[in-house]
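Materials and Methods. Structural model of Fimbria assembly protein. The 116-residue sequence of Fimbria assembly protein from Escherichia coli was retrieved and submitted for structure prediction as follows.
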Amino acid sequence: GPTTQLLDAGDTTALVPLSLRLEGCPPGSVAILLTGTPASDTNLLALDDPAMAQTVAIELRNSDRSRLALGEASPTEEVDANGNVTLNFFANYRALASGVRPGVAKADAIFMINHN
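The predicted structure was written out as tokens:
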């Protein structure tokens, strides 16, 4: 499980893909801005459970697998001729410290949509 992958600070779990599909957009390009409660590493998303948040955070990544830090805009994607666009991302857990224990590891993120 994930706790066996998170032995030391900086260790990560496997990437999990996630997509945001937007429909009915006007022509142009779209990016998202990720916000939420920052972890002790302020680029990462803090977990809801305060005890778990001391040792684990959620890292979001762009489609090229580069880190998407909190407060940073993603690369833009062009809206297609039908007004649709899909933004692809990945997420993983990242250990902030050693001693990660099993538990509930969830967080809330806000994806703000920027249209140009």
